[in-house]
UniProtKB/TrEMBL annotation:
Pfam families assigned to the protein according to its UniProt record, in alphabetical order: Biotin_carb_C, Biotin_carb_N, Biotin_lipoyl, BT_MCC_alpha, CPSase_L_D2
GO function term, MF aspect, one: ATP binding
Name of this chain's protein: Biotin carboxylase
Organism phylogeny: Bacteria, Pseudomonadati, Pseudomonadota, Gammaproteobacteria, Oceanospirillales
Record's catalysed reaction(s): N(6)-biotinyl-L-lysyl-[protein] + hydrogencarbonate + ATP = N(6)-carboxybiotinyl-L-lysyl-[protein] + ADP + phosphate + H(+)
Keywords: ATP-binding, Biotin, Ligase, Nucleotide-binding, Transit peptide
Organism: Alcanivorax hongdengensis A-11-3
Source taxon at top rank: Bacteria
SUPFAM superfamilies named among the record's database cross-references: Glutathione synthetase ATP-binding domain-like, PreATP-grasp domain, Rudiment single hybrid motif, Single hybrid motif
Role played: This protein is a component of the acetyl coenzyme A carboxylase complex; first, biotin carboxylase catalyzes the carboxylation of the carrier protein and then the transcarboxylase transfers the carboxyl group to form malonyl-CoA.
């Protein structure tokens, strides 16, 4: 057995950082690879060496096998860890490592090939005694053969890409009349994603759970499982929340899952880490779905209930060592739960979002955070939009769930749209809390896709309390207009702009008025948190100061921007207002010159986002003082584009 001395990580982001962390603990030198777009990301900074693979598109960098192998040779790396995604389940890559004399931290090329072909894997599992769903997986079946087979399989059924993964090339068909249209769509998507339009058919279980088992095998004939995970909460076949162990299973069922998974691994003479995925039907039967021949995104929940470092296990097995523990030595403790934080906009159909992370605070004190980015990094739209995973462990499922809710509430992030509020809603949902799990949970609970609405008046009052607690503002005539004090009480009036809405907060004698709302108010403000009670309403939030007159309030993971005295600075002078980017995009036109006077309604600047142009116009007469951008620049949402001063008369 030869220990690994230097490891090249053929990946990026949070999984690259995760692997680097274990390598540093074991004294293994690390080599990061990166695209031109990723040159400043944390995984590049934290590795001992780094090699640029090429331009931003993955097909020109991370997916070019020759470039990765050359990087390993040039840096003297004796092993390559593929992470997940990219080349992790690429047969040619595993073979290229072997041919180059480089250890591939994963199974051999044959295992990847067999399990990467969904039809072949299904046939092998059936031959090995692992239960499979009724279906049709004939190699090279024509459309006509598939149509005929669909009647035998029965509806509802699932069309699944043979070379698929990540939910691509999959279609649920509920009736025969829809089959041919769905088949054409699945073939198109599979061809585009994998260059292979072969599909198979399986009976579809509309209320099944997704239960998977972590397996490990070595080169000495040993194979074990590290218990199961439940990954039923999904959106469009993509996992959203994962947990371990799977809730609601008796010990006999858990044991049956584990035995079937180990049997599947032995059937292909497997090596390293793998995950065997099953569909678990309401009647207690379970069926093989697929095997992922790599480390999974959700591996941290298994680490947290077992106390094992799965990356360390991978490195040991790849170096030729036997498994660190036998089946009887692997114990589980408590419950762990993970959410995937994506740069996406749930309110716009979960469209990916990109931009500069201008403010970022991870809740490390409340959760394990596996993150690919830190404050000041830029999220690009070239890659998968997952930016981090938050994982919590508790003595019980509910304790882990509550911890994860608190961690999401403590998250502070601006510059991109993200799904933290959506994740919090799912975790807090009665059905999820009550273990009513199946792969269509989000379809059954459409209200979980509805955005959280926090009353702007409540946000304004909270912000006013934060500003008022700052000694710098207590004697500011623009912030606090003091009136009479017959018994030492104070009248205050605070002018604020909350998420673009101008509001005035008035407080006197324990009552607060915002617009037409009035009620008794009390608040507790600390250095970064506040709790507020206003009549029947309450609010818990975190706050962060961006500038003297700009505040961020974070409620349920969502950021709200508040400006003190919009239109004036703290000394009462005219303040230059400006145009800010309403979304991330590219500047396509500047319609005026710096120093030019414009009338209300005049076009000032145009940006393009999502293939649509958005023109920003002056809302009042004034002077354009300066442009902070030029045509062709990429900008993130909230970026100041133009300095503008309204005419005194307006």
């Amino acid at each position: 057995m030869a220990a690994i001395k230097k490891l090249l990580i053929a990946n990026r982001g949070e999984i690259a950082r995760r692997i680097i962390r274990t390598c540093h603990q074991q004294g293994i030198a690390t080599v990061a690879v990166y695209s031109e777009a990723d040159a400043t990301l944390p995984h590049v900074r934290e590795a001992d060496q780094a090699v640029c693979l090429g331009p931003a598109p993955a097909r020109e960098s991370y997916l070019v096998i020759d470039k990765v192998i050359a990087a390993a040779r040039d840096t003297g790396a004796d092993a390559i860890h593929p992470g997940y995604g990219f080349l992790s389940e690429n047969t040619a890559f595993a073979a290229a490592c072997e041919q180059a004399g480089i250890i591939f931290v994963g199974p051999n090329a044959r295992a990847i090939e067999v399990m990467g072909d969904k039809a072949a894997a299904r046939q092998l599992m059936a031959d090995s005694g692992v239960p499979v769903l009724p279906g049709f997986d004939q190699e090279g079946a024509s459309d006509e053969q598939l149509v005929a087979a669909s009647e035998r399989v029965g509806f509802p059924l699932l069309i699944k890409a043979v070379a698929g993964g990540g939910g691509k090339g999959m279609r649920v068909v509920n009736r025969a009349a829809d089959f041919q249209e769905a088949l054409a769509a699945a073939r198109r998507e599979a061809r585009g994603a994998f260059g292979d339009d072969r599909v198979l058919l399986e009976r579809y279980l509309p209320t099944a759970r997704h239960v998977e088992v972590q397996v490990f095998a070595d080169n000495h004939g040993n194979a074990v499982h590290l218990f199961e995970r439940d990954c039923s909460v999904q959106r469009r076949h993509q996992k959203v929340i994962e947990e371990a162990p799977a809730p609601g299973l008796d010990e006999a069922t858990r044991e049956a899952f584990g035995e079937a998974a180990v049997q599947a691994a032995k059937a292909i003479d497997y090596r390293g880490a793998g995950t065997v995925e099953f569909l678990y039907a309401p009647d207690g039967q379970f069926y093989f779905m697929e095997m992922n021949t790599r480390l999974q995104v959700e591996h941290p929940v298994t680490e947290m209930i077992t106390g094992e470092d799965l990356v360390a296990w991978q490195l040991a097995v790849a170096a030729g060592a036997p498994l660190p523990k036998g089946q009887g030595q692997i114990q589980r403790r408590g419950h762990a739960m993970e959410v995937r934080l994506y740069a996406e906009n749930p309110e716009q159909g979960f469209l990916p979002s990109s931009g500069l992370l201008s403010h970022l605070r991870w809740p490390h004190e409340l959760a394990r955070v596996d993150a690919g980015y830190e404050q000041g990094d830029r999220v690009e739209d070239f890659y998968d939009p997952m930016i981090a995973k938050l994982i919590c462990h508790g003595r019980s499922r509910d304790e882990a769930r509550q911890k994860l809710i608190r961690a999401l509430e403590a998250l502070e992030i601006t510059g991109i749209h993200h799904n933290a509020p959506f994740l919090r809603r799912v975790l807090a949902d009665d059905a999820f809390a009550g273990e009513q799990l199946d792969t269509r949970l989000l379809e059954h609970r459409p209200q979980l896709l509805e955005a959280d609405d926090t009353d702007p008046a409540l946000l304004a009052l909270a912000a006013a309390r934060v500003f008022n607690a700052d000694p710098r503002y207590q004697d500011d005539p623009w912030q606090s207009l003091q009136g009479w004090r017959p018994v030492g009480q104070r009248f205050t009036q605070t002018l604020l702009q909350v998420d673009g809405n101008n509001l005035t907060v008035r407080e006197h004698n324990g009552l607060a008025t915002v617009g037409k709302q009035q009620g008794p108010v009390s608040a507790t403000v600390s250095a970064d948190q506040l709790r507020l009670h206003w009549g029947p309403q309450g609010l818990a939030a975190r706050h962060a100061r961006l500038a003297d007159d700009t505040l961020l309030l974070f409620v349920g993971g969502r950021a709200h921007s508040v400006t003190l005295n919009p239109g004036r600075d703290s000394a009462g002078h005219d303040q230059q207002a400006g145009f800010v980017a309403p979304m991330s995009g590219t500047i396509v036109a500047l319609h005026v010159q710096a120093g030019e006077h414009v009338a209300a309604g005049d076009a000032v600047i145009t940006l393009e986002a999502m293939k649509m142009e958005h023109t920003l116009r002056a809302t009042e007469p004034g002077t354009v003082h300066d442009f902070h951008v030029a045509a062709g620049d990429s900008v993130s949402e909230g970026t100041l584009l133009v300095e503008f001063e309204a005419d005194a008369e307006s």
